[in-house]
Amino acid sequence: MKTIRFGIIGCGLMGREFASAAARWCHLVDPPARPQIVAVCDTSDRAMDWFARNFPSVAQRTDDYRRLLANGQVDAVYVALPHHLHRQVYLDVIAAGKHLMGEKPFGIDLAANSEINRGIEARPDVFVRCVSQFPFFPAVQRIGRMIESGQFGRIIGVSSGFLHSSDLDADKPINWKRQVDTNGVYGVMADLGMHACHVPLRAGWRPRTVSAVLSKLVPTRPASKGSAQRVPCETWDNATLLIDAVDPAGGSFPWTLRTWRIAPGHRNAWYVEILADRTSVRFDTRSPGSLQVMRYDGGEQNWQTIEAGFETTYPTITGSIFEFGFTDAVQQMWAAFTCELATGRTPGLFAGCVRPEEVAISHRIFDAALRSAAAGMPVDCAPGGPPGR
N or C: which end of the chain has fewer CB within 10 A? Predict the structure, then answer.
């Protein structure tokens, strides 16, 4: 089995999730490669201490990511930093010849993302992908295989979204995601939007026009925990988009995309619904093992619930009767990254991580949403190139 030596830049929550997935790599059955954490970078010694305590393989810890990139023992890098740092760090990782898994949105705005993509084009030897875990739930992988095999027929409408209540409490202190300088003008779309775009864009469905309603619901928040001082919340809390989408198989349809940070009743719900004239499906992470399917042949319309269980794309030691969760999705995503890096392929179209060209289309969607909200009307959104493996 090939070993891919990783450096992690940004040792927060998602950096720890990746490291945990790597520590449990024996959970996977005969993977072609395994990740090994050999270097970490953060401005916080405390954050790096966790890695040093739990991973004897970590031989380098530094507060300067350039030192990590100069380390010849690092093959690939996971970057989990705030959005305003993506452009420069991603470009430096790619220029250093390190394979890259980057957090969304892959640049604070359309201009930054375009510059990152030019850097990728200049280094075709570097493998680059973007984080998005939820499509690796077994039920969603099944949806992907249904799309690949043409089971849906004519697409009538699609809904996808990411809804949670992390900012429902108006007295939650301000953080970097509430500030334009660090999060960017996309607001909630920057952090949640790629997750909601992943399945539709991988299916090859492309946006033609975008109409957006963007909401700022909490104007100020405490400057810090326990502080009486309140500071402005500069970014959009909720975004609701209606997209006129084109199916390369023929026809167009409405795609409703929602990314809400203030969604009462939703703790952390990712969902996708596809309505079509032959087969329709619904999935929501609040019922992670269940896939709802309706097949229509001219008779009765009956929704069937299929229990997907632990039937993963990348095989594991867990029995298929058990339940699947977020940490499992994280490991499946990293299995996809390492598999494609090591072998140049994945088991199927939906079994791979988000590609840079898909991220670029998401940026065009979010940019169009800003223009639509400002104009109060639908605006054009270039559909991008054809889908591919």
Answer: C
Q: Given 130, 165, 188, which residue is the final one in a domain? A: 130
Q: Tell me which residue range forms the domain holding 126.
A: 2-130
Contact by Cβ (8 Å): 33, 67: no
Burial of 64 (0-12, 13-18, 19+ CB in 10 A): exposed
Evaluate if pTM is beyond 0.90: yes
Quick check: is 105 in a domain?
Answer: yes
* Inside any domain, residue 334: no
Q: Same domain, yes or no, for 165 and 38? A: no
Output DSSP code: residue 316: B
Can you read off the two tokens belonging to residue 65?
């990511």
Tell whether 125 and 223 lie within a shared domain: no
In a domain, 232, yes or no: yes
Q: Can you name the residues that pair with 231 across neighbouring β-strands?
A: 221
Q: Are residues 237 and 104 in the same domain?
A: no
Cα 80 vs. chain centroid, distance in angstroms?
Answer: 12
Of 366, 378, 382, the C-alpha closest to 211 is: 378
Quick one: 258 and 112 in the same domain? no
Same domain as 72, residue 188: no
Per-residue pLDDT tens listing for the chain (389 residues): 899 999 999 999 999 999 999 999 999 999 999 999 999 999 999 999 999 999 999 999 999 999 999 999 999 999 999 999 999 999 999 999 999 999 999 999 999 999 999 999 999 999 999 999 999 999 999 999 999 999 999 999 999 999 999 999 999 999 999 999 999 999 999 999 999 999 999 999 999 999 999 999 999 999 999 899 999 999 999 999 999 999 999 999 999 999 999 999 999 999 999 999 999 999 999 999 999 999 999 999 999 999 999 999 999 999 999 999 999 999 999 999 999 999 999 999 999 999 999 999 999 999 999 999 999 999 999 644 333 32
Helix (H) or strand (E) holding 25: none
Tokens, residue 363: 């940026």
Q: CA distances (Å), 109 to each of 83, 94, 134, 180, in order?
A: 9, 19, 23, 11
Residues 316 and 204 both lie in one domain: yes
